[in-house]
Specification:
single chain; 12 helices; 7 strands
């Protein structure tokens, strides 16, 4: 019988160990949004790994350290994640509750927290401090009937594109860090216009019936981009360029635009491929998916 696990989000409290007559025990505490404080036992290896992760976090004075834990039916720690953010516990818990993948919300926070460029990091913290935008970004579908067409699909697709872009550019020796992080941010936000064209109930909004989501992507970001430009003009212009570039003749001025487009296609194609082969036996090597019933292939 599989053990049932529960997940908790909270402010990181005290990490401590206790030595009794027989053995040493290791604990971590967290405070949940209800004000409850939970103390969880963990293995020595996990304790040391959490301490190393905590030591590696670059924490600003306006940020709090959060921990997300999965525990078994006896409250033993099964899995954990750490991140820092300038948001209150109530705000983060609200996003957590609206999301369809707690893991993806944590990954979003970790992506932002991991940026070394202070201007891009501040830009994203300010953007996702907008409650209505953030709630929809973590909860709406990636599309109606095409790729990632499930609640939370937009966040999942956006994170995939950001990871593909970042990893691809990391493969280039000495690629400029600022340009790599700018491209990662652009990949994360390339479909954010869908928070305007997709409704929380899973249907298209009134705008979505008439206006392509691309129209709203830059419009929704304009206040934060203008502020970014006031802090670092080239980063702001570069973000506008990456979000609006269209494939055509020659190379883009920022070559990472090609990676972002490729990342979008790879994430989209792989999701459609998973749909195509869902429930199919292993000996199926070809299957159709999507509105056009495009044929996908897999290798076994």
């Amino acid at each position: 019988m599989n053990k049932q696990t529960r997940t908790h989000l909270g402010l990181l409290g005290v990490m401590q160990s206790e030595l009794n007559a027989w053995s040493q025990h290791y604990y971590v505490t967290l405070q949940t949004a209800t004000g409850e404080q939970r103390t969880l036992e963990m293995s020595p290896d996990e304790y040391n790994r959490m301490q190393r992760t905590l030591d590696s976090l670059l924490i600003n004075e306006d940020e709090w350290i959060y921990v997300v834990v999965s525990v078994d039916d006896q409250d033993h720690l099964v899995h954990w994640s750490l991140f820092s953010a300038p948001y209150t516990l109530d705000y983060l818990n609200m996003l957590y509750e609206f999301s369809y993948s707690a893991t993806d919300v944590v990954r979003l926070m970790q992506l932002i927290q991991g940026l070394s460029n202070v201007h891009l990091k501040s830009f994203l913290w300010a953007l996702f401090a907008k409650e209505n935008l953030a709630v929809k970004f973590v909860s709406v579908k990636g599309s109606q009937k095409h790729h990632h067409a499930y609640p939370g699909g937009l966040l999942n697709h956006s994170l995939e594109c950001a990871r593909i872009t970042r990893n691809a550019l990391n493969a280039i020796s000495d690629y400029p860090k600022a340009e790599l992080e700018l491209a990662t941010v652009a990949a994360l936000l390339h479909d954010i216009g869908k928070v305007q064209t997709h409704s929380m109930d899973g249907n298209l909004s009134q705008e979505g019936f008439s206006v392509p989501h691309e129209v709203y992507t830059l419009k929704l970001l304009t206040p934060e981009i203008e502020h970014l430009k006031s802090q670092h003009l080239q980063l702001g212009i570069g973000l506008e360029y990456l979000l609006t570039w269209k494939e055509g003749k020659g190379f883009p001025r920022l070559e990472s635009a090609n990676i972002i487009k490729a990342a979008d296609r790879i994430s989209t194609g792989y999701d459609l491929k998973q749909q195509a082969f869902a429930g199919k036996p292993d000996y199926f090597h070809f299957a159709p998916a999507g509105e056009n019933q495009q044929i996908f292939q897999r290798l076994n």
